[in-house]
Structure formats: structure tokens, C-alpha cells
């Protein structure tokens, strides 16, 4: 006898869907979210395919769950990511389901309430449910069973018994609809032209009739302060008029706060924000609102890519070059690249916005795979900051101090004019290394191969990789002598100390991601800076990007050489982007800005390009160097990171893998070597690098290779990172 069989993909690290029989009373469709038995318990899964077959020996699907089904496009995105990253399909699915939080408290449109009928029989479990339901309508059966602390079956039994009944609920509103025609500043002519070019790519037809665009990807490359945000707001406005949803991706939560205010100014209301800081219940409501189409614009971190949009018409990836878009544990995916994939699957237009695009993106634009819209001038005739190097070899800086006399006098002049200065150092904490002058002992993390960073604020030595923290000792833990511990090198806290000593009557704000008070405090501080309520800002990369500080006219980069010395081939690109971004904070308001860059190597190509303002030249040289080396985007790269608490086991596994690598022509396998961070959280790490020519199917090669490799045992893990960001 044949009956419907559902192949259900479960959001765990599994590649295969499991088959279940569909009970006759249940009608399922592909994409439905269901509850199924798995081993001794019940779990949530998604119907991946349906077929007929002899399913009599299979376990049965327990029921459908009241969350929106996964659309075909979203299921294809899951498949795509799993194939590309070599992650198990179930792990990719987990990102789209965002379990467990959501499944536990479903977004129910169906409420449950008591009918007033007494139960035919009473049990302790039933009594608990009846007591909870007596308080009124409960949103969802699962919510009710969870609140009562009983299994879902008890609630179902009471419904069958007529004690409870289900009622349809009006959806809760999560976000007021943005008004595309809310009064706002008019675009300048260059902005309007850029907006027109982007609007022309929207695939939804215009309301008054007329031709629709063909979608695809457009790079919006505009210098800092060119007004890119207002440009893509105009595209969002047009998407609203055409009745399609928009997703704006941001690399960091810190950027989102200011963005929400700007959005509200343009559209009258704030959009729905989606990131890890958004709590359980609100998450579900956004998810449901996105699925129903009620939520028209979402701004979010990379995970927003997996929301079940009903009719997605536009994806904007702001600051598309940002490394934060890469998730580098679990499923290692790049949100910018996946946004391009999702855009294609949804037939939505994709806009990648940046002042300093990734080399990959530039190359894609040059080769005609992406369109390119350029905004070479700042908005309103404002000038880009003048950038000058301070050659530290020629400056007299006392030991233990980091501000050059040239920078100090520039800060003083700036403040004297009533303007703000920003001092940038990409290093959190007080000092990156603590050393005992008597015995030479250096304080290292017990779990990781890194130095502990002194945080004077917290009076602790902290590991930035695993979070390990210990009190800064009074006496050296090694030799026991007092007063010999020395802070080596600067972090932002130390710079703030020097600034306070040098400018005792100035208002100083320190902005770093690990400052106490969290997102709210950060938001308030950023606001203070924006309103001109401080004279000097000292900050890490947190302040480098995206922010708009109208009173800021001087940017001082304290150590432009950090990052240039690492062996990573992307170091130059990354440093160039970061320095370009941070110097671009200067002079965005009415007054012109300038930037001073402290360096020991002013002739370095990155610094030279920054000073000359010749970004094109930097990009073309860097692109040429990548091409010669066969590095992305001209070749493909993947990293296998083998980690284990047992160092020898990790290394042995790496060697065994290398022995069966059998690279065909066009493929190179390097290693195993100790990973750049050889010990993290108590796990030793070895790395194999795979470099292939562009035409090679990297994923197939990796899959075949890993299948030949030794079995993964114990706590050993093989992490696969396709397109690693640092290598
Ligand atoms: P970008 O993102 O390209 O660095 P922004 O979008 O932040 O630039 O714009 C830079 C500055 O110019 C901001 O202060 C912004 O408010 C202002 N601005 C941009 N477009 C307009 C406009 N059309 N009218 C008035 N001010 C604008
Ligand atoms: Zn550590």
C-alpha cells in the first residue's frame, strides 16, 4: 500500500532528511514546519520533500507547527549554503529556523481558551492546563503547554474533549508601515541620478505601469559622505510604493542605532530591527510579520538573511566590504555573498554599498557581473578630508607616550575652534601585553596562544579570544617581585589616559565595544558625540565606520601600521579600507576636515595611497597582485581547521588528511601547519589550505577528499571554511 511519506530535514548537524509517514488526517506541503519523533524525543523539522511509498514501517509525523512554512526560495537558499560551505544541510536549516527559541514559543495566530465545559476526566496535568487557560486566551497551543508545564498532547486532549477551543487571533503589529512619501530633504542631483539607476533595477513593476527592471546586483560605490544612505533610502521608498519588502543588512549592531533614527526621519517610523539583541518574543513577531508581509522593511545583522520574506524586492548590503559579514564558526558563510544568492533566488534587486568595496566586488563590477554606480563627490559640495602622514621617526615622543607633538597641537587647534577630534586606535583595553621587568615573564592566556590584554577599567588581564579574565596581580606570579609589572604598548584606555593628562579641561569620550553599559550606553555616547557634547573621542574600529559626527573635523590615526605587518595577504586591503573609513569621519558637517596618520613607514603603498587619495591606483595594484598570486577572486581558497584538545591528535589528523589529498592539476594543498591562532579555548588548531584555479569545482574536490580522510573521533573537529577571510 502506498501512502504519503515526508522527508523531513531536521535542524541539527545532519545532511540527510529523515523519512516519516504522514498520518491520513494530516495534509502536508513541502516547506511545512512539523514536529516529528527523533529517538526518544520530539523535535522540529521541515518537510523537504513529499512522495508516495510503502511507509508502514516508518514513524509518523506528529503534527504541523503554527509557524510559517519555508518558501521554496528559502529552502533553495538553505540547499545552496550547505552545498557551498559544505555544512550539513540541517545546520544551514537551523539558521533559517532560528531554533530553539522560536519553536518553543511559536508565533501563533491561533489562540486557545476555556469553553467553560468541565473535563470528562481530570488529571493533575489537565488541571494545570485548565488553571492557565482560566486567565483568558493563550496565544498558541505550544505556549499553553509550555506555560502549564505539560506535554502538547494534554492540550490536544482537552480540545478534543471540548474543554478548550481554538480562536483566530488578530495579528499583533510589530512595525508601523513606513511612509515612502514622508516629508524629507530633497536629493541632490548626483544622488537622484544614482537613485534612478538603482530604482531601474527593481523587478516589481511601478504602480502606474511601465517597465520593471531586471534585478541583479549593483555596486553603489560612493566616497565617505557622498550620501549613499539617502540614495538607497530612495530605492527602499520605491520598493514600498511597489509593494515589495526590503532588507537592509548592516555589519554591526553598533551601527544600527543611528541608522534607525535616520530611517525614522526619512520614513516617519522605525523599521523592524533584527539582530542577536532582539529578544525571543519580539523575534517571533518580526518573523511572523515578515512572513505575512506586514513588516515591509527589516534592518538587521547577517542572520536577517534567513527571514521568511513574503515578497522580497530589495536587499541592500551596507558597508559591503566589512569582515563582520563573514561568519567564521559553524556554517562559515559570507552574508554579502549569500545576499547575492538570495537576491537571485527571490528575483530581488541587490545593492552593495561601500566607500571602499571589497576587491572581489570591484572585480565583479569590472567584469560586468555587477552594475556599478559611482558617487565620487561628497554631498553638498563638502570636501574629502586632507590626509597627511606624521612620520614618527622624526617626532620626539617620550617613552610610554603615543601622541606625537604634531598631533597634540592639531588637537589643540581643533578644540580651540570649538570642533571635535577623533583619535583612533584599533586596540581594545589598556595594553596588549604585560611583562615582568624582573624575570621577563609575559602574561599569556591559559587556553589560547595569545597574550592577555590589560583592561585597567576592569582591573583585569583579559583574553580577547576566549574571554578568560584574571586579576592583574600585585606581584609577579612567576618571580614574586613587586612593582615590576609593565604595560607594553597602547590600547584605547591608555590613549584616553594620555589624552586626559594632556588636555585636562577637555571632555573626552572613550568608545570601545567592551565598555560597560552595553548597547544602550553606547547609543547614548554616540548621540553625545554627534551633538557635539564632547571635545575628544578616543575609539576603536567601532567608531570608524558609518557614523556621522557633524562637529568632527580632525581624525588622528595613532598607529596606522597595526595590521600591515601580519602575514595575511588581505592585510593591505583591510588596512586601506579601515583607514579610509576612519579618516572619512572627518569633515562630514559644514566645516572641512583633515586627518593625521601616525606611521613609521609613510612610504608603504597602503599609507602612500591613503595620503595621495589615489584609491584607484591602490585597487588596481592590489588586484594585480592578487591575480599574479592566484588569490581570490582569481582563484579559490578553502581552509580546513583541525582542532582537538589533544595537540598530537589534531596534528596527526591533519597529516593523515594531507596524505590522501591527491590534488589534481590546478589544486594545491598546503599544510598542515599550526593555525595562526594555534591554541584557542583549550583546543589546538592545525590548518590545511586549499588553493585552486577558478575553474575548479572546489566543493566537489573537498567533499571527495574528506570522504577519503580518516574518521573524525572524540572531540576532534574538522572545520571547513570556504573563502576564509584571513589566511
Ligand atoms: P555616506 O553613507 O555616503 O557616507 P551619508 O548618507 O551618511 O553618506 O551622508 C553624509 C551626510 O550628508 C549626512 O550628514 C547626511 O545627513 C547628509 N545628507 C546626505 N544627503 C542629503 C540630502 N539629500 N539632504 C540633506 N543632507 C543630506
Ligand atoms: Zn583565551
TrEMBL record:
- Output the InterPro entries linked to this UniProt entry: DEAD/DEAH_box_helicase_dom (IPR011545), Helicase_ATP-bd (IPR014001), Helicase_C-like (IPR001650), P-loop_NTPase (IPR027417), PriA (IPR005259), PriA_3primeBD (IPR041222), PriA_3primeBD_sf (IPR042115), PriA_C (IPR041236)
Known catalytic reactions: Couples ATP hydrolysis with the unwinding of duplex DNA by translocating in the 3'-5' direction; ATP + H2O = ADP + phosphate + H(+)
Q: Which UniProt keywords apply?
A: ATP-binding, DNA replication, DNA-binding, Helicase, Hydrolase, Isomerase, Metal-binding, Nucleotide-binding, Primosome, Zinc
Note describing how the cofactor binds: Binds 2 zinc ions per subunit.
GO term, biological process aspect, one? double-strand break repair
Residues that hold Zn(2+) 1 according to the record: 436, 439, 476, 479
Q: Which CDD domains match?
A: DEXHc_priA (cd17929), SF2_C_priA (cd18804)
Q: Does the keyword Isomerase apply?
A: yes
Please give the Gene3D superfamilies that the UniProt record associates with this protein.
P-loop containing nucleotide triphosphate hydrolases, PriA, 3(prime) DNA-binding domain
The entry marks the following residues as binding Zn(2+) 2, namely: 445, 448, 463, 466
Which cofactor names does the annotation list?
Zn(2+)
For this protein, what is the EC number? 5.6.2.4
The UniProt entry, under Pfam families, shows: DEAD, PriA_3primeBD, PriA_C, Zn_ribbon_PriA
GO cellular component terms attached to this protein's record? primosome complex
The residue ranges of the Helicase ATP-binding domain are: 209-375
GO MF terms here are:
3'-5' DNA helicase activity; ATP binding; DNA binding; hydrolase activity; zinc ion binding
Family of this protein = Belongs to the helicase family. PriA subfamily.
- Note the PANTHER family from the entry: PRIMOSOMAL PROTEIN N
Instruction: Describe its assembly.
Output: Component of the replication restart primosome.
- What role is this protein assigned? Initiates the restart of stalled replication forks, which reloads the replicative helicase on sites other than the origin of replication. Recognizes and binds to abandoned replication forks and remodels them to uncover a helicase loading site. Promotes assembly of the primosome at these replication forks.
Protein name per its UniProtKB record: Replication restart protein PriA
The lineage, from the top, is: Bacteria, Pseudomonadati, Pseudomonadota, Alphaproteobacteria, Hyphomicrobiales
